[in-house]
Design brief:
- 36% of the residues lie in helices and 22% in strands.
- It is built from 13 helices and twelve strands.
- The strands form three sheets. The chain has a five-stranded mixed beta sheet.
- β2 and β3 form a beta hairpin.
- The longest helix has 22 residues.
- The two termini are 41 Å apart.
- This is DNA polymerase IV.
- GO terms for molecular function: DNA-directed DNA polymerase activity.
Length: 358
């Protein structure tokens, strides 16, 4: 595994950078992609905005408090997708082993790159130069012998830089880092680790596998390995998508059944448009609800065959949201997700459901 050459390419403030590229008046200014409405959320922030503490997923009102001069630009996802296709076409000139993570980042295995470039460092440098020349956008890159280290490394020289973690430095480098930076350690897990005296990679490495299993269950093996710089996952160009969903935040908390149901149906239609376009259909439908006090709940049910009709998806979504109606407190957000993908059943009418709502 130490002989592998893995690059993690991560575009710099992708959505915001596209907007600044296309509108010169936005360059050098704090820009947020999203809506400034009371219930709006920042989808992406330029580096100028980040200097004020504006980040993605931040409520728009909070972002404006932190940066009163913040400029909101509505998202243009069709444009971002088109640029992403340009970038992936560049990747394909170097390797077939490309694993996209999102529109703006991907893993590349360049152990045997198509251009015969001797080092992964030089390969990453050439890829970044081509991205800049062909799209006008900058990218950062992490280079290492596994995916975990490559992804960590791509953050090290942002924006518009690259950093390599070689086999002889991997373990020692991981020990110096805060565990909150590790892929797979979210804010809740990082807080739990801190309570257990684990704040750095060195702290994590010092814990036995038995200790980690006691406190983190099935994730213990992963934490045990990454503390030692180990990750044997291959770059998988055929990685299957596990779910697809859509959600919306309302302008005000909703309490009326009809308005809540209409919101859920709208999200179901958004998800169905993706299903129809990709020809991917799921057996499981999940409805997410976020109340005005930010409490989250989900309700799910599974069909014995894929939900391959819009009417079926709408019916399942309505059934799930009605399981929490009427509400005693307002609903801020609703979402619909399909998962557990399976071949289309060919049925266009409701199938009997099984399993409890949960």
């Amino acid at each position: 595994m130490a002989d592998r050459k893995i690059i993690h390419v991560d575009m710099d403030a992708f959505y915001a950078s596209v907007e600044q590229r296309d509108d010169p008046a936005l360059r050098g200014k704090p820009v947020a992609v999203g809506h400034a409405a009371a219930r709006g959320v920042v989808a992406a922030a330029s580096y100028e905005a980040r200097g004020f503490g504006v980040r993605s997923a931040l409520p728009s009102v909070t972002a404006l408090r932190r940066c009163p001069d913040l400029i909101f630009v509505p998202p243009r996802f069709d444009v971002y997708k088109a640029v992403s296709r340009q970038i992936h076409a560049i990747f394909a000139d170097y390797t077939d082993l490309i694993q996209p993570l999102s529109l703006d980042e991907a893993y590349l295995d360049v152990t045997a790159n198509r251009r015969g470039i001797a080092t992964a460092w030089a390969t990453a440098k050439e890829i970044r130069a081509r991205i800049l020349a062909e799209t006008g956008l900058t990218a950062s890159a992490g280079i290492s012998y596994n995916k975990f280290l490559a992804k960590l490394a791509s953050d090290q020289r942002k924006p518009n830089g690259q950093f390599a973690v070689t086999p002889d430095m991997g373990e020692a480098w991981v020990e110096t880092l805060p565990v909150a930076r590790f892929h797979g350690v979210g804010p809740v897990t990082a807080a739990k680790m801190k309570r257990l005296g684990i704040e750095t990679g060195a702290d994590l490495r010092a814990k036995s596998l038995a200790f980690l299993q006691q406190h983190f269950g099935s994730s213990a093996d992963w934490y045990h390995d990454i503390a030692r710089g180990l990750d044997e996952r291959p770059v998988d160009p055929n990685r299957e998508r596990k779910s697809s969903g859509s959600e919306t935040t309302f302008d005000r908390d909703l309490t009326a059944d009809a308005e809540i149901e209409a919101g859920v149906l709208d999200q179901a239609d958004q998800v169905w448009a993706w299903c129809e376009r990709t020809r991917e259909f799921g057996r499981t439908v999940t409805v997410k609800v976020k109340y005005g006090d930010f409490q989250n709940i989900t309700r799910s049910r599974s069909y014995p065959a894929a939900v391959d009709g819009q009417a079926m998806l709408r019916e399942a979504s309505l059934m799930l949201i009605r399981s929490v109606l009427p509400v005693e407190k307002g609903i801020r957000l609703v979402g619909v997700t399909v998962s557990n993908f399976a071949p289309a059943s060919g049925l266009r009418s409701a199938l009997p459901l099984f399993g409890e709502v949960g």
